[in-house]
Amino acid sequence: MTDTAAATAAIKQKTKILRITLAVTVLSFIIFLITLTSSQWVVVTYPPNFFSTRQKMYLVRSTYGIVWECTRARLTNVSVFGMY
Fold first, then answer.
1. Are residues 49 and 79 in the same domain?
2. Domain count for the chain
3. Are residues 59 and 28 part of one domain?
4. Cα separation of 50 and 73, whole Å?
5. Which strands, in side-by-side order, build the sheet including 81-83?
6. pLDDT score for 63
7. DSSP string, 8-44
8. Is 59 exposed, middle or buried (0-12, 13-18, 19+ CB in 10 A)?
9. In terms of DSSP H, where are the helices of 38-74?
């Protein structure tokens, strides 16, 4: 009788672990799909007259995705354009 009870408890524990693992996998897959299909993750708005030495221009706003960066910047106080 104890062997049957121990075997049943082990099967229940393994089933619980399997269900938790399956739920985490499905949740991770959904988050992964959202990550790949979203066009913007982070939007950064810079203070006025913020000069970027890396891009050598005045930054206005940047949006970041998983693979790309889109920056709105200006070379002077007049022109505004986007970099892709």
1. yes
2. 2
3. no
4. 10
5. 42-52, 57-64, 69-74, 81-83
6. 85
7. HHHHHHHHHHHHHHHHHHHHHHHHHHHHHH-S-SEEE
8. buried
9. none
Q: Do 47 and 78 belong to one domain?
A: yes
Model confidence, pTM: 0.51
Please give the average pLDDT of every successive group of 10 residues along the chain, which has 84 residues: 84 96 97 80 82 81 80 69 54
Number of Cα atoms under 13 Å in the Cβ half of residue 60: 14
Q: Report DSSP state, residue 6.
A: H
- Same domain as 29, residue 56: no
Same domain, 51 and 69: yes
50 and 73 co-located in one domain: yes
